[in-house]
Amino acid sequence: MRILIAEDDFASRKFMLKFLSKYGECDVTVDGMEAVDAFLMALDADMAYDLVCLDIMMPVLDGYQALKAIRDIEEDRNIPEEERAKIIMTTALNEGANVNKAFDLGCVAYAGKPIDQTKFENVLRKLGMIS
Amino acid sequence: MADDMITEGMLDMFIFETEQGLENLENICLESKDVGEFDDDHVNGIFRIMHTIKGASAVMMYQNITTLSHKLEDVFYYIRESHPEEIPHAELLDYIFEVSDFIAGELEKIKEGAESDGNADNLIEQLDKYLKKIQGKGGGDAASAQKAAAPEQTSAPAEKPHFYIAPVASDASRFYTIDITYAKDTDMANIKAYIAVNALKGIAEDILFTPADIISNPDSSNVIMEFGFKIALQTVEEADHIMELVSNAGSGIEHVEINECTSEDFIAFCTEVESPISSAGEVLTAPVEQPTVRVETQKPKSIVLTDEEQEKEAEKDAAPAAKKAPVKKKPPAKKGETQSFISVNIKKMDLLMNLIGELVIAQAVVLQNPDLKVPGLDLTNFQKAAMQLSKITSELQDAIMAMRMMPLKNTFQKMNRIVYDTSKKLGKDIELEVIGEDTEVDKNIIEHISDPLMHMIRNSVDHGIESNEDRQAAGKTEKGKIVLEAKNEGGQVWISVADNGKGLRREEILAKAKANGLLGNRSEKDLSDKEVYNFITLPGFSTKKKVTEYSGRGVGMDVVVKSIQDVGGVLDIESEEGLGSTMTMKIPLTLAIIDGIIFSVSGTNFVAETNGVTEFIRGSKDHLVVEPDGEEYFMIREDCYPLIRLNRFYHLENGKDELEDGIVIILNHEDRKIAVFVDELVGEQEIVVKPMPGYIKQVRGISGCTQLGDGSISLILDSGGLLSY
Fold it and tell me: Which residues of B touch A122 (CB under 8 A)?
C-alpha cells in the first residue's frame, strides 16, 4: 500500500510516519500544495496512493483545498470510484461543521487529534486496506 | 439542519442526537404500553430512530452500539414489512428498554471520556431469538424473512461509508490568540519570539504565528518590534499556564496579551497568517481581529428555547402574520410535540439574566435619584418617561424568565419509565397519572428536581403502594395509582406525588424517631402530624423493614429535601393512614428577582421577601415576654413568637432599644414564625438577588445582598436561617 501524509507540524508528522510505516510505503509532505503535487506525480508515474492523510490547518493550501484538488484531479482523469484514493483528514478541528464539510468534499474518514490509533486501524480494516 | 448551525463538537452532537432518539423511543414504547401493540406509526418511528442511531454510531465507530441498534432495526424492519400477526408485546418492550438502557449506559461512558466497551452480544442473541420467534409465527414468509434478515445489504451501497475517529479522550481544547510586545531595545526579537513559540510547543495541539519566517528572515525582527508578535494557539491548558510559559521564555518581553477565542477565529487567524507569507518578504501587518472572549468553551450546556409564544402570536393575528415571513414559514406546531427550537448556550442566558438584573438596579438608581428630590421640580414628563421605562424593563424581565422556562414534560415522561420498571420488578400493578406536564419552570429548577422527583416516585411505588395481595386484604378494589401533578400556585410551582397506598403510620414513625432519640424533650402528643411526617426526611430514617433495590435505606428523603432546599423550595408531606400520602414540592418560580420589603436597623438596610412577611406591628413592652435565661418572646393575640433584635443580633450600635420606638416584623418560614425588631421601614421594591461575595464568610440569617435605588447595599434576610438559631 502507498501512503501519502501531509502534515505541517513536525511532531505530528513524525508520529504519523511511524504509525503508518508498518502498513506501507509512506511519503511525507509539509503542506497542502506539496501534497497535491506529490499526488499528481504519483498518478503520472502510475503509482497512485491508496491512502492520503491530510492535516487541515496547513500552510499554502489547507487540507480542505487539498482534498478538493485531489478529488477534482481524480474526476478529471476519470478514475473510477473504487480506484480513488482513500482520504483521511487528521486534524484537531472537531466541530461538526468541519467534519461534515470534509465528508461533503469526499474524505472517507475524519480523525480527530490526538489520533486514536486503535480506531484508526479499525477504519483501515473496514476500508479493506489492512487485514 | 443547516451546516453552519452546527457549532458543537462532533461527539457532543452524536450524544445529543442519540439521547434524543432514545427519549423518543421510550416515549413511543410507554405510549403503546397500555394498548398492547405498536401501530404503524410506532413501528416506523422506532425503525427510523434505530436506523439513525445505527448510522451515527457507525460514523463514530462505536461498534457495539451499531450492532445492537442494527439488530433492533432488523426486528422492526421485519415487523414493518411482514406485519407478523402475533407479536409478544411485553417481551418486545422489555428488549427495547434493554437496548435503550445499554445505549444510554454507553453514552454515559463516552461522556465521561471513557471507552465505550459494553458488550451487547447477549442482548443481540436474545433479539435474534425473538426475531426468529416472530418470524416463525409470521407463517414462514420466507422471502420477507430473508429480506428482513438482511436489509442492510440492499440499502448499504447507497450510502457512502464515513468514519469519524474521535480523538483520544482529553479535555476539550481551547483556542487562544497571544500578542507579545518586546521592549524597545530588544536585540534579535525574532529569536526571542522563536523561544516563546518553542516553549509553547510542549502544550500546543496546534500553533501558528506571525511573522512566520522568524528564523529564516532576520528582518522579521523589525516587524516584531513594530507590530508585535502574534501567536494562535490551540491547547487544553488554561490561560494562566500559557502566560507563565510565555513570560519565562526569553527576556525583553514588555507586554503579553492572551485572549481566548473561538475555533472560527482561530481558523480565520490561520488563513490570514498563512496566505500572505508566501509572497516573499511581505509580511502580514493587518492587526488580528479582536477575538471574542469566550470563557470555558468546554462542552457548553445548552438550553432550549421555544418560540411557541411567537407562534401563538402569529396565530393570534393571522392576517398581519402573512407579512411576517420568517414566522409563517415554520410548520405549525402540532400540539404538545414538535416545536421549533434554537439552542442557546446557557452561559449566554445567564449573562442576559444578569444584565437585566443590573438594568433593574440601574433603573432604580435613576428613578430614585437624590438629585430629583429638589423641592419644586416639575417632574411630570420625567415621571411619564419613567413609567414607560419601568414597563419595558418589567416586560423584559418577564421575557427572559419565559425563555428560561421549560415545560416539565420531559422530566415527567421519564417518571413513566421509572414507574413501569419499578412496579414490574416489585410485581405491583400501578398506574401513573400525569397532570399539568405543560407547567413551565426555570431550567435550573428542572435540573434540581428531577432526581428528587425520581426518588419520591420510587418511594411511592415501593413503600406507598401495597402489594396486590395486601390491597385485596385491605379491601381496596382500585388499581394502585400514583398521580404526578404540577401546578402554579402564587409565585411557586407545586409538584406533587400522590399515591393511594397505605399512607404513613404515625405510630411507626414516632417509635422509630424515639428509638433514634429525635424527639428530644417533647412529648409525642405535642407533635403535629406534619412534624411527625417530617421525621422521615431526616438522614438515616427508614421505617421500611426490608431494604429493597429501590428504596428503604433511609438515604433518600433527606437527599430529596436537600435538593429541594437548594432551589429555595420546601417539601410538604400529607398523609392519611390507609388511604395514601401526598408529597408536594413547593418551589419558587424564579430565584433571581423578588419583591422585597426594605427596612433599616441603625443605618444598615435589610430586605425581606414580601411573601415571607406576615405583618408589621408597633409593639410595646406589654407584648414582650422575657425568659429567665434572657430569651425574648413577642406575644400578640395569644400567639408567641421568638423575638430577634437585629441590632443586637448583628452587633449594630445605636439601634433603637425600646419596642415603642421601632417596629416589629413577623416573618414566616414554612409553618413557623419569628418576630424581628427593626428601627424603621424604608419601602418596598423589586430586588435583584445577588449572592454574598465569596470573601465574606457565611453570615447567619443572610442569604444574599442587593443594591438599592440610592446605590446603597442591602442585605437580604433569610427567615429560614434566622429560625434555625
Answer: 61, 63
Query: Is residue B137 predicted with pLDDT exceeding 70?
Result: no
CATH number of the A2-126 domain: 3.40.50.2300
Asked if B26 and B144 sit in the same domain, the reply is: yes
Residues B559, B632 within the same domain: no
Check whether B641 has a pLDDT greater than 60. Answer: yes
CB contact under 8 A, B267 and A111: no
Residue with cell 432495526: B73
Q: Does A115 touch chain B (CB under 8 A)?
A: yes
Q: Are residues B710 and B617 in the same domain?
A: yes
Residues of B in contact with A62 (CB under 8 A): 270-271, 274
Are B23 and B106 part of one and the same domain? yes
B380-404 and B346-367 are packed helices; what angle lies between their axes, rounded to 10 degrees? 160
Cα B277 to chain center, whole Å?
Answer: 48
Q: The pTM is what?
A: 0.48
Closest chain B residue by Cα to residue A101: B3
Residue B380 lies in a domain: no
Whether residues B708 and B659 share a domain: the answer is yes
From chain A, the residues in CB contact with B210 under 8 A are none
Distance from CA of B182 to the nearest CA of A (A): 26
Dist CA B386 CA A35 (whole Å): 67
Q: State yes or no: pLDDT of B292 exceeds 60.
A: no
H/E stretch holding B31 reads helix B10-33
How many Å lie between the alpha carbon of A110 and the closest alpha carbon of chain B?
Answer: 5
Query: What are the pLDDT digits (tens) for B226-269?
Result: 778 888 887 777 777 888 877 777 677 777 788 777 766 776 66
Q: Is residue B299 part of a domain?
A: no
Residue B409 has pLDDT above 60, yes or no: yes
Which of B76-85, B143-152, B381-390, B593-602 is most confident?
B381-390
Confidence of residue B549 (pLDDT cuts 50, 70, 90): low
Name every chain B residue with its beta carbon within 8 A of the beta carbon of A92: 167, 173, 205-206, 234
The residues, any chain, with a CB within 8 Å of residue B620's CB and separated by 6 or more, are B659, B660
Query: Do B129 and B208 belong together in one domain?
Result: no
* A contact test, residue of B8, B160, B165, B265 with most A CBs within 10 A: B165
Q: Which domain holds residue B195?
A: 174-277
**Which residue in chain B is spatially nearest to A103 when comparing CA positions?**
B162
pLDDT digits (tens, 9 = 90+) for B414-451: 888 888 888 888 888 888 888 888 888 877 778 778 88
> Is position B370 within any domain?
no
Instruction: Say if residue A20 is exposed, middle or buried (CB neighbours under 10 Å; 0-12, 13-18, 19+).
Output: buried
Domains of chain B: total: 4
Tell me which chain A residue has its CA closest to the CA of residue B268: A57
Of B11, B164, B274, the CB nearest to A60: B274
Report pLDDT for A6.
92
CATH of the domain at B421: 3.30.565.10
B412 and B528 fall within a common domain: yes
What's the half-sphere exposure (Cβ side, CA atoms, 13 Å) at B448?
Answer: 24
Domain boundaries, chain A: 2-126
CATH number of the domain to which B642 belongs = 2.40.50.180
Would you give the end-to-end CA distance of chain B in angstroms? 57
Residues of chain A contacting B167 with CB distance shorter than 8 Å? 92, 94, 111-116
From A95, A101, A119, residue closest to B165, measured CB to CB: A119
Residues B571-596: tens digit of each pLDDT = 888 888 888 888 888 887 765 667 78
Specify the 3-state DSSP secondary structure of B331.
Answer: coil
The verdict on B72 and B215 lying in the same domain is no
- Residues on B contacting A at a C-beta cutoff of 8 Å: 3-4, 6-11, 13, 61, 63, 160-168, 170, 173, 201, 205-206, 208, 212, 234, 263, 267, 270-271, 274, 277-278
| Residues B674-705: tens digit of each pLDDT | 888 888 888 887 777 777 777 777 677 787 78
* CA torsion, ordered A13, A17, A19, A24, to nearest 10 deg: 150
Lowest mean pLDDT among B284-293, B379-388, B633-642: B284-293
Asked whether residue B353 is domain-assigned, the answer is no
Q: What angle do CA B497, B499, B505 make, to 5 degrees?
A: 105
Residues of A in contact with B208 (CB under 8 A): 57
